[in-house]
Structure formats: C-alpha cells, structure tokens
Amino acid sequence: FEETKAQHSPFTSMAPVAPRSGDVIFASVERVNAELFTLTYGAIVRQLITDLEEVEEVNKQLDQMGYNIGIRLIDEFLAKSNVSRCVDFKETAEVIAKVGFKMFLGVTASVTNWDAEGTCCSLILEDNPLVDFVELPETCQGLYYCNILSGVVRGALEMVSMKTEVTWLRDMLRGDDAFELQVKLLKQVPEEYPYKDDE
Predict the structure, then answer these.
(1) Closest to 187 (Cα-Cα) out of 84, 51, 89
(2) Are 87 and 95 a contacting pair, CB within 8 Å?
(3) Which helix (H) or strand (E) is 163 found in, with range?
C-alpha cells in the first residue's frame, strides 16, 4: 500500500518507476485457489479429449486457447510489471521466465540452451502447477497437456512484435526430468504507428 501511495502522490517526482519483480506482483494480485485452477484446467483438457477424440487436435486447440489468452494477457503484464521495452530477444526471454511465469503461475523458469544467433532458447520449468494431480492414461501419450502455455507465450510475444515458434522438448508427464519449452524467434516485426511525427 505504501508503495502504491507513494507512486500516486502528486508531490513525488516523476522519476521512472522501477520494474516490479514477479514475486512482488504474484504476492499482490488476487488469484483463485491453486487446486481449483488446476482441477478446472484438467476438466477443460478432459472435455477437449472427449469432444475432439484426436490427441493432436487437442494439442492444437490448447495451443490456440493459449494464444488467445496470451494476446490479451500482455496488457495486464505490461501494466502491472512496469517492464519497459526489452532491448533484445535474450532480455525478453529472461523477463518471461522470471517475471511473467512468476506473475501468472507462481513459478519461475530458467533460460538456457541459447543458439549462436541469440534467437532460440529453452525455458525450463522444474515446477508446474498445471500438472498437480495429473497422470496421463495410455490413450493420451501423444498429448502435450500444458500446450496452453506454449500458446500463451507465442500470443504474448506476437503482441510485442515478435513472431515465434514455441514447442515442447521435454515433458515430465512423458517421463522427462523437467518441462522444457523451446522458443524460437522467427521474425521481429517493426511496430507501425498510424500517424507520423510532426517535423
């Protein structure tokens, strides 16, 4: 409360506000009970499996749902985090891992496996609240249960002018030792403004 009060006081200077950490934001936002969230997501995945029957179609639908969430979530992220424009894709990946994941999921990711060009990396989650209470049956072995996360990352980055490809490399539900998302920058789209600056 004191921090907020100080920022909005008319008597304080207009110095730039420092970016807030994911921990601070996560502690300050209202959120639903973690178990309820996890079980609700599980029910959505189960219903998609029932409706679509094909696991690959479920993967696509989860990714599309995540994408639709990501393009809307970016506004809330930018407003609450005070993060300014990242200088490059490497900084962007760090912000996603340390602030974005913490803000919305309550966990942080590590950023590793950079390619030489600095356009492809891995986000590794050792903890993932989406998979609490989850065990995939034999009939769902091709399912990327957390594919909604890849869509969220892709959608959010597209809204800040970065076209990416986001794929799962490792999945603990498939017996791997971590959750690993590969994020590859395909194209950085320059922002276009509908007006010209006066000369």
Answers:
(1) 89
(2) no
(3) strand 162-170
